[in-house]
Each structure stands twice: as structure tokens, then as C-alpha cells.
Specification:
Blueprint (H helix, E strand, L loop, with lengths): L8 E18 L5 E19 L5 E3 L7 H13 L6 E5 L10 H16 L8 H7 L1 H6 L4 E5 L4 E4 L6 E6 L6 H11 L8 H7 L1 H10 L4 E2 L6 E5 L2 H8 L5 E5 L7
Helix pairs in contact: 1-2, 1-3, 5-6, 6-7
């Protein structure tokens, strides 16, 4: 039984942008070595977590949701069940390259740590089992990420605002990296050429956005860095797609 004093936790699971992304090549394990500047932004999902006798997840994507994968990885690490009731309010588009699922998983790890008295446990290795982006999103802010994205070095938090646009469909990350092996890449995000080759609709979307927009991750969302909120709002005016403006945020405790 849980003590009645344990609260219902509400955690913001922030999206991230890849402000730059360089692919260095293929690793012996088949993954790709990258160097990327990651930045958390104010756009976020909301994860509500409370004590429970058995685990349930409302608002997720079934038994393979990354929230449940994170819970299972943490249970395997500590060697005991860590039941909780999760309720997820999604605001970050799924499959957009904005790290929504990974951020949800990171929020779940932080919540379970608090609910089950695991404050002394290093969650980093657990996060790495779930996914490379989960390691960064445990803390957020800004970082240069290497390896598969799990090796972090603090970086200055960006300034200004971001306009963000998503065409309404996703692009397979594995297909993008496989195409990168064939065509390589250039520019601030070296996966862009491969993503546009994998998904012709994404090429059309990029042309509609015009100059000043950059793809995040392996796609399919794009962003534009702006000096002011009003400039960001003007950048998304008239776009016939999912869109938002967001500011950069620092690391959370």
C-alpha cells in the first residue's frame, strides 16, 4: 500500500528540437554516430501519475508505449514492481521528430523515481535502454549529444522563439538513416536530403515553407528560429498544417 500522503504528480514532458545534426557514419552495432545540438522547447505533453495497485495508462499508444517501456526498464533495474496510474495528455505531434514519446518516457522515469523512493538511483542508464533521446529529455535544456545521442555535453540555451510546423504525417527514422547510407547529407541537418528522398510529400512541404525553415531530427517537423514571438507568429500565419510557436526552455530539476 502507498502512504496517503503521496501526491498525484503532474509533469510537463517537453518537446525538443535538433538545432543542428551531423551524421558521422555507421557504428559496428548498426546504429549511426551523430553529433547534434538538442534544445528543449515550451511545447509539451502532460503526464499525470499517481500511486496504484496495478499499472494503467490512459491516453497512450497501447502496450508498446514508451511510458510503459520506461516503467518496465526501471522495474528490471530495481528488481521489483513499480505500479502507477498514468494519464497522458498529448500535445506534441506523434512521429514529428520532436521527441514527444521519448519525453513522455523521461517524465515517467522521473515520476516513478519520486513515487517509489528511488531518488538515489541514477536514471541515465535506464533512460539509455529506452532510447537515446530519453537521456537528454530526463533533464532538458540544451546539450550537444554524441554517440547515438546519449552522450551529453552541456550547451548554451538558445534565445528567441521558434516557429514549428508539421505536415501531418511521419517519416520512418530507420528508412531515413538507411537512405542516408546511400545519399549522405549536408547542411545544418544532414538527414534532410535522405528524409526528402524517402518521402516525396515532405519535399513538397519543405518547398511550401520556403527559406529559413529547417527540419528537426529525421523529420517530419520543421522549425524556424526567430528573434521575437511576433516574428514566430508571422512565420506560421497562413500555413495550412499543424503549427505552433514555442520558446526555448532550460533544464528542469
Amino acid at each position: 500500500m502507498f502512504p496517503s500522503r503521496l501526491p498525484r504528480l503532474a509533469l510537463a514532458a517537453h518537446a525538443k528540437l535538433n538545432l543542428s545534426l551531423e551524421v558521422l557514419g555507421t557504428r559496428p552495432d548498426g546504429n549511426h554516430e551523430v553529433v547534434t545540438w538538442c534544445q528543449s522547447i515550451s511545447l509539451h505533453d502532460l503526464l499525470l501519475v499517481e500511486p496504484a495497485a496495478t499499472t494503467t495508462l490512459d491516453g497512450g499508444h497501447g502496450p508498446h508505449d514508451l511510458v510503459l517501456k520506461a516503467q518496465q526498464a526501471l522495474e528490471a533495474t530495481v528488481g521489483r514492481p513499480l505500479p502507477a496510474r498514468f494519464e497522458l495528455a498529448k500535445r506534441i505531434p506523434v512521429g514529428a521528430g520532436l521527441g514527444g514519446g521519448s519525453s513522455d518516457a523521461a517524465a515517467a522515469l522521473r515520476a516513478l523515481s519520486r513515487l517509489h523512493g528511488l531518488a538515489d538511483l541514477d536514471l541515465g542508464p535506464v533512460a539509455a535502454e529506452v532510447g537515446a533521446d530519453v537521456v537528454f529529455l530526463l533533464r532538458g535544456g540544451a546539450a550537444e549529444a554524441g554517440g547515438r545521442g546519449e552522450r551529453l555535453r552541456p550547451a548554451p540555451v538558445a534565445t528567441g522563439w521558434f516557429a514549428v510546423a508539421w505536415p501531418g504525417f511521419d517519416v520512418s527514422t530507420s528508412a531515413v538513416y538507411a537512405r542516408w547510407d546511400e545519399v549522405g547529407g549536408e547542411g545544418a541537418n544532414q538527414l534532410t536530403r535522405a528524409a526528402l528522398a524517402v518521402e516525396p510529400r515532405l519535399r513538397e512541404f519543405a518547398l511550401q515553407l520556403g527559406e529559413g525553415w529547417r527540419m528537426t531530427g529525421s523529420g517530419s517537423a520543421f522549425f524556424q528560429h526567430c528573434q521575437t514571438r511576433r516574428e514566430a507568429e508571422r512565420a506560421v500565419e497562413g500555413l495550412d498544417c499543424w503549427k505552433t510557436v514555442a520558446r526555448p526552455v532550460g533544464a528542469w530539476s
